Amino acid sequence: MAYKIDYCIKKALQFEEADSNVIFTHINKVKVGELDRCRKFYWN
Predict the structure, then answer these.
(1) Which of 36, 2, 32 has its CA nearest to residue 11?
(2) What is the dihedral of CA 37, 39, 40, 41, to 10 degrees?
(3) 2, 18, 20, 22, 43 from 28: Cα distances, Å
(4) What is the largest CA-CA distance in the chain?
(5) What domain of life is recorded for the organism (predicted)?
(6) How confident is the model over 7-43, as pLDDT tens digits?
């Protein structure tokens, strides 16, 4: 699935709030039409 970064972060925070066992390590940024990530954002 592809989402804008702000929506991705919003949804990740909702998952963390709903279940304290959920752990996110990073978010990958992928350019439209590409299969490989171009940037990796780490989650603290």
Answers:
(1) 2
(2) -140
(3) 10, 22, 22, 17, 11
(4) 34
(5) Bacteria
(6) 888 888 898 899 988 887 877 777 778 778 787 777 7
Total of domains in the chain: 1
38 vs 21: CA distance, rounded Å: 28
Tokens representing 20?
A: 């304290």
Query: What DSSP string describes 1-40?
Result: ----HHHHHHHHHHHHHH-TT----EEEE--TT-SS-SEE
Q: What's the gap between Cα 10 and its chain centre?
A: 9
